[in-house]
Specification:
By secondary structure, the chain is of the alpha+beta class. It has helices spanning 39-44, 47-56, 115-118, 122-132, 147-156, 158-163, 170-173, 191-197, 224-229, 247-267, 285-320, 400-405, 420-426, 429-438, 448-453, 462-472; strands at residues 12-13, 18-21, 33-36, 66-73, 80-87, 92-93, 105-114, 210-216, 237-244, 280-281, 331-336, 338-347, 350-359, 362-363, 382-385, 393-397, 409-410, 442-445, 476-488. Strands 7, 8, 9, 11, 15, 16, 18 and 19 form an eight-stranded mixed β-sheet that branches. Strands 1-2-3-4-5-13-12 form a seven-stranded mixed β-sheet, with helices on both faces. A two-stranded antiparallel ribbon has the order 6-10. Strand 15 and strand 16 form a beta hairpin. Helix 5 crosses helix 11 (285-320). It is globular and about 60 Å long.
Length: 489
């Protein structure tokens, strides 16, 4: 698809961090499009993002606005960083608004170790993790599930793992939706998807997925009270972050239903500007089938990260010769950022059931939201935003303003500024690995070209993204986390 688009000339600045493209910009827009960004981030956005977010604004049943978060960049159909909510009765569901890596998400784990404890063993720790958690294209996990077991995983997500000795009971309360989406139906998943997913439990995959050893430094804490509530309370405390999703399983489900939806659009007389926005009415048989299959992929992704957490705990126990319980390896949270969920939101002063699409966007529910576990009722939902492997990441919490303005959504990461191919032209993986080690970050990677694709300069400055969501009030920073060890596919 051609990406030679011009940025809108009639974009309106609503506030310091909100930019609105009116419905007059493109024939067929049902609602305006809104981009959350500082002027600096807006100016740096690919013009194609503006085309994609306004295409989304044309989809049937869309409510309020089509959104793009400050980490937004070109994606498949929707921009990555896209948020859109559709009326559950008259609206559509679109795989392009969820992404191929269904329930790609973040998991953050604490320890009671300090950097002083870890530094002498850092290389051993990273090397152990590299062996313990398989990474790279086509990687296979150490946990082999039978078809009946994988069917249970599709239905029960993290719950299956905990019940089978691959986690702690408390992990479920610390996972979005308790690690399980109830409406999953394995009957809606193809045999090809099942074959791709059944051997991938406990694997990182490739691309921007990672397992990272990080340090929580006292000078980087923005809200000490909430940080302590989440288990981060010691100067130079070491934490672990994981970023991955449903691997080839979710990708195949997305591929399968895009083909089905292309035919469904003819049946339901739906026209879109971009075939990548293939969709079906949410209440149609096709729409409901995809929703149930998508939930299976989301549950597999929760289980995948749960198995990875189990392996991380084993790895730390091995290196430090101490039980994971004694190392206080508690999970802060696990949050999804590629999923669609049926939620209740206020539209035009009335509560409505909406199918909320978040693609490269994180749920950011406020304090006292009924869907939050007791642990987060006072603080609001933890939000984990990953930066590049050279810069660091952030832990934030959700806010009421996000609930009021963006259907309880915020950013999910740094957001790319260039293609993977462009990044590989600018640096070799071997050199990047050496440079990172000089800067105090020990990295292991399955592929050196894959490592080059993830160089820090290929991403927006994470501090700029956090600045934008903080100024917009759609999430509140708690602490920034600096990398010292990294595993890439």
């Amino acid at each position: 698809m051609e990406r030679n688009f011009e940025k809108p000339k009639d974009i309106k600045q609503v506030s310091e961090t909100i930019w609105e493209i009116p419905t007059s910009f493109k024939k067929g827009m049902l609602v305006p499009a809104r981009i959350y960004a500082t002027k600096k981030l807006l100016d740096g956005m690919d013009a194609g993002v503006f085309n994609q977010v306004t295409n989304v604004a044309c989809l049937p049943g869309i409510q309020n606005y089509a959104f793009c978060m400050p980490d937004g960049h070109w994606g498949y159909g929707f921009p990555i960083g896209g948020v859109a909510a559709f009326d559950s009765e008259t609206g559509v569901i679109s795989p392009g608004g969820i992404g191929f890596d269904i329930n790609c998400g973040m998991r953050l784990v604490t320890t009671n170790l300090t950097f002083k404890d870890v530094q002498p063993k850092l290389k051993e720790l990273v090397d152990t993790m590299f062996k313990t958690v398989p990474s790279g294209v086509g990687s296979r996990g150490f946990v082999s599930a039978t078809k009946p077991q994988f069917t249970e995983i599709m239905s029960d997500g993290s719950k299956w793992c905990v019940e089978n000795g691959l986690g702690w009971k408390e992990d479920l309360e610390r996972t979005e939706g308790y690690g399980k989406i109830d409406w999953a139906d394995p009957e809606k998943v193809s045999s090809k998807a099942l074959e791709r997913g059944i051997k991938q439990l406990g694997t990182l995959g490739s691309g921007n997925h990672y397992l990272e050893i990080q340090v929580a430094r006292a000078e980087n804490i923005f809200d000490e009270k909430i940080a302590k509530r989440f288990g981060i309370h010691t100067p130079e405390q070491v934490v672990v972050m994981v970023h991955c999703g449903s691997r080839g399983f979710g990708h195949q489900i997305g591929t399968d239903y895009l083909r089905i939806f292309e035919e469904a659009m003819k049946k339901y007389k739906i026209e879109v500007f971009d075939r990548e926005l293939a969709c079906a009415p949410f209440q149609s048989n096709e729409g409901q089938d995809y929703y149930k299959a998508m939930a299976c992929a989301a549950n597999m992704a929760f289980a995948n990260r749960q198995v990875i957490l189990h392996r991380i705990r084993e790895g730390f126990s091995k290196v430090f010769r101490t039980d994971a319980e004694k190392l206080d390896m508690h999970m802060v949270y696990d949050v999804a950022h590629n999923v669609a969920k049926l939620e209740e939101h206020i539209v035009d002063g009335k509560k409505k059931k909406l199918i909320v699409h978040r693609k490269g966007s994180t749920r950011a529910f406020p304090p006292n939201h009924p869907e939050l576990a007791r642990l987060y009722k006072e603080t609001g939902q933890p939000v984990i935003i990953g930066g590049s492997m050279e810069t660091g990441s952030f832990l934030l919490v959700g806010t009421q303003k996000a609930m009021d303005e963006t259907f309880g959504s915020t950013a999910h990461g740094s957001g790319r500024t260039m293609s993977r191919a462009a990044a590989k032209h600018l640096v070799r993986g071997e050199q990047l690995q050496k440079d990172m080690e000089k800067n105090g970050i020990y990295v292991k990677a399955t592929s050196m070209p894959g490592l080059a694709e993830e160089a820090g300069f290929a991403y927006k400055d994470i501090n700029d993204v956090i600045d934008a969501v903080s100024k917009a009030g759609i999430s509140k920073p708690v602490i920034s986390l600096k990398p010292v060890g990294n595993i890439k596919g």
